[in-house]
TrEMBL record:
Keyword Coiled coil belongs to the record: yes
Domain HVO-A0261-like N-terminal intervals: 14-86
Coiled-coil regions, chain positions: 231-258
All residue ranges annotated as the Methanogenesis regulatory protein FilR1 middle domain in the record: 122-251
A Pfam family per the record: FilR1_middle
Domain of life: Archaea
Cross-referenced InterPro entries: FilR1_middle_dom, HVO_A0261-like_N, WH-like_DNA-bd_sf, WH_DNA-bd_sf
Protein's name in the database: Uncharacterized protein
Length: 267
């Protein structure tokens, strides 16, 4: 409890005094320099410097105040938190379409570009998915649900340049697709493709996910179609998406043409 209170106090101090901390991160300053550069009173500087000293964020050396290692690490953590919050804010409309327990890590949202359909370009969001995979060397994907009409265009786009594709299809979706003659044919065609590997298994979330060697993305579905897409090319986002895929693949069943034998829709 004491640690929580201390962390909360540090957070409040960084929020209120971030301009002072950033100024001292740029270069050491004396109190007069802080007052002049930040256009504030000397009494305010005295009070803030005292608080920063007490928190261990600042130290005095040769008449100047500078950040300690604690101060620099605290500022870095504060900035990471701000970046995460900006990502959540930017994706607010997209996130509102997901269940409250959707396992979406804030690390994916930090720096993500969000795309939602517009009335004049209703397929603009799904184009972002196609744009991401068309030039990739490899694509890992997870499909809990799907727009049946987009299956063939997706696989054609992904494999056109020899891209290696691995896709996990949820059990529920696989059963539905295999029962449809058109979708059944798409799955059969892809299982015959030398660069495509398909799996079926349990998928504990309702958003689609893909990851290439340089980018990760999610697709959010609604009752009326694709609600939006988010893409992120940061290393952290790619690592997170890859981990999600690999964890699901461990327990998934690899599909073969024999897997489709006797499934309604064949032929």
């Amino acid at each position: 409890m004491i640690r929580d209170e201390t962390s909360a106090q540090l957070s409040r101090l960084l929020v209120r005094r971030s301009s002072f901390v950033r100024a001292l991160a740029e270069r050491p300053r004396d109190k007069r320099g802080l007052a002049d550069d930040l256009d504030t009173s000397r009494s305010t500087v005295d009070r803030v410097v005292r608080d920063l000293l007490d928190a261990g964020l600042v130290e005095r050396a040769d008449g100047l105040y500078r950040l300690t290692c604690v101060g620099r690490c605290a500022l870095g953590a504060y900035d990471e938190c701000l970046d995460s919050l900006r990502g959540v804010q930017a994706a607010r409309d997209l996130l509102s379409m997901l269940p409250t327990d959707a396992p979406l890590d804030p690390v994916f949202l930090t720096g993500a570009a969000v795309h939602t359909p517009t009335p004049d370009i209703p397929d603009s969001a799904i184009r972002e998915l196609f744009s991401s995979v068309e030039s990739a060397k490899r694509v890992y994907g997870v499909a809990p649900v799907a727009l049946v009409g987009q299956l063939r265009p997706f696989y054609e786009t992904a494999t056109e340049g020899g891209t290696v594709v691995e896709m996990i299809i949820s059990d529920e979706l696989f059963d539905r697709l295999a029962a449809s003659p058109d979708s059944h044919a798409v799955i059969s065609d892809q299982l015959r493709h030398e660069s495509v590997t398909l799996y079926r298994g349990e998928v504990p979330f309702r958003f689609g996910l893909w990851v290439t060697e340089s980018e990760a993305g999610i697709v959010v579905y609604t009752d009326t179609g694709v609600g939006g897409v988010a893409r992120n090319d940061t290393e952290a986002a790619v690592e997170w998406a890859t981990e999600q895929f690999e964890a699901l693949r461990e327990n998934a069943e690899r599909l073969t043409l024999d897997s489709l034998d006797g499934v309604p829709g064949d032929g």
